[in-house]
Specification:
The complex is a heterodimer of chains A (239) and B (268). Chain A is built from 7 helices and 10 strands. With 239 residues, chain A is an alpha/beta fold. Chain A is globular and about 50 Å long. With 268 residues, chain B is an all-alpha fold. Chain B has a single domain, classed as MetI-like fold (Orthogonal Bundle). Chain B is 78% helix and 0% strand. Chain B has 13 helices and no strands. The longest helix of chain B has 34 residues. Classes of the chains: A alpha/beta (239), B mainly alpha (268). At the A-B interface, β6, α2, α4 and α5 of A face α8, α9 and α13 of B.
């Protein structure tokens, strides 16, 4: 699905990413962990097409990525919801751009709101919602475009523990239902272990891949000891 | 009746006192003064009633409003386009910057002799002055508004497929509404003043021309009536168009809705 071919990135003269080589298979959930400011979001922005690699190429579904595209849905850390629009209007935004008829837009937007359990808040302004609900609106706005990949930039970080757990569970359910290729950037190892099929650890200046850990399905590794061992292993990569 | 039960009560406004008081002071100050020097409210009222029943008044008013709408409209549209372009592309911002700084410092009325020479007497030079007057405040406001749009919103719009003309219409213009409305209000004030001044200097009809003509023949009641018409129209346009435009934007933090607060308890 994603092929990162010798991708390096510089911000001005500052080298952020060493040449990276990485392949992400369709339908998998890959989490990228690492210390704050290491270049995780830069990697996600390269996958999204917001940034162009200084060297190398990002390929998606057999084509080079040249810019952002609704086939790669992105949920940003700051969400980027449009405060002048209601919940439903936010979710409909991308569908209107496609020129779909109004009734199709509405029914698809409502279905996306059902998926994130926000249908009853459709007419509210997004500023009236709580942090977790706003996160769900951003997710619905991305999912309604029927993307092939979902890119999540610290999507759960700003939430309280309870909300984070609920949303993580919902995200995983949606991932399983839709078969989306998902890339989550997070600084939380626990979060990555809870939802992912594979964890990649970035560290160093400039950043490089220090570890690549395929995980068994979450249900098969519920034991605390296993979780703690994996956590400790990843910690040795990013400490 | 209990105001909390009856709903919203109209708040006391000191304008209810200050405006009649100003008219009374005006009346007192002009008593015994000849109307051709400083007319009182009753003299102006008489002139107003006489003017309002003539066709000339409405023709002049129509001419001024036509120039204002075309000139201000052109300044607003052009200023918005240039402001968005400058906010979007650094090269345009850098290329435009020196001209905006230079021309916004030049009083619009100073363009009148040049425009009259180049474009001749009539609507065109005056409308051009009005456009120049409204253009730069709108550019500055819109460009500032572009910088204030959170980067995450722009990225989200692009990720959802917005580019080209749709990103301007569906994203930038709504996101810019508060700053655009602010720029239009400032631009309108300058445009309106410039219109009247231009008509006084280089017009052959319109409100400014009427005031100028009345002043030349010593008809101070007509001069004061013209001033009142200018102020009243400005207030009317501001109240009916510009303020609602500014208020119409849904921005800033809001109280969470009761439904959202209730839902938060079980699932934020």
């Amino acid at each position: 699905m994603f092929e990162i071919r010798q991708v390096a990135f510089y911000y001005g003269h500052r080298r952020v990413l060493k040449p990276l080589e990485l392949t992400i298979d369709p339908g998998t959930w890959v989490s990228v962990v690492g210390p704050s400011g290491i270049g995780k979001s830069t990697l996600l922005f390269l996958l999204a097409g917001f940034l162009k690699p200084t060297h190398g190429e990002v390929w998606f579904r057999g084509r080079p990525v040249t810019g952002p595209d609704p086939t790669r849905g992105v949920v940003l850390q700051d969400l980027g919801l449009f405060p002048w629009l209601s919940v439903l209007e936010n979710v409909s935004f991308g569908l209107h751009l496609r020129g779909l008829p109004p009734h199709t837009v509405r029914s698809r937007a409502e279905a996306a709101l059902d998926l994130v359990r926000l249908r009853e808040h459709a007419e509210e302004p997004v500023d009236a919602l709580s942090g977790g609900m706003r996160q769900r609106v951003a997710l619905a706005r991305t999912l309604v475009m029927a993307p092939d990949a979902l890119l999540l930039d610290e999507a759960l970080s700003a939430l309280d523990a309870n909300t984070r757990q609920n949303l993580a569970r919902d995200l995983r359910r949606i991932h399983n239902e839709t078969g989306l290729t998902t890339v989550l950037v997070t600084h939380s190892i626990d979060e990555a272990l809870a939802v992912s099929d594979r964890v990649i650890a970035l560290n160093g200046h400039p950043a490089e891949i220090r570890g690549d850990l395929p995980l068994a399905p979450a249900a098969n590794r519920a034991e605390a000891a296993t979780h703690a061992e994996l956590h400790d292993l990843i910690m040795t990569w990013i400490a | 009746m209990d105001p909390t039960v009856s709903g919203r009560r109209r708040r006391w406004h000191w304008g209810y006192v200050s405006v009649p008081a100003a008219v009374l002071i005006w009346y007192g100050a002009t008593r015994g003064v000849p109307a051709f020097i400083f007319p009182g409210p009753l003299d102006v009222l008489q002139t107003a009633l006489a003017s309002l029943s003539t066709r000339t008044f409405y023709e002049g008013l129509g001419a001024s409003l036509f120039r204002l709408l075309v000139g201000f409209g052109a300044g607003g549209v052009l200023g918005s386009a240039l402001g968005i372009a400058a906010g979007r592309f650094r090269g345009i911002d850098e290329a435009l910057g020196p001209f905006v700084s230079f021309f916004q410092a030049v009083p619009p009325i100073t363009w009148v002799p040049l425009f009259v020479m180049v474009l001749g007497i009539g609507n065109l030079p005056i409308m051009s002055v009005v456009t120049m007057a409204s253009l730069f405040p709108v550019i500055i406001a819109v460009e500032g508004g572009m910088r204030a749009i959170p980067k995450s919103q722009t990225l989200a719009a692009r990720a959802l497929g917005a580019r080209g003309w749709p990103i301007v219409v569906r994203f930038y213009l709504p996101a810019l509404q508060p700053s655009l409305a602010g720029g239009l209000r400032v631009g309108f004030g300058i445009a309106w003043r410039s219109l009247v001044a231009s008509e006084m200097v280089g017009g052959n009809n319109g409100i400014g021309f009427s005031i100028q003509t009345a002043g030349q023949v010593g008809n101070m009641s007509a001069v004061v009536f013209g001033i009142l018409v200018i102020g009243a129209l400005s207030l009317l346009f501001d109240g009916l168009v510009l303020r609602p435009l500014e208020r119409g934007q849904r921005t800033g933090p809001r109280r969470r809705s009761p439904a959202a607060r209730a839902a938060e308890g079980i699932d934020a």
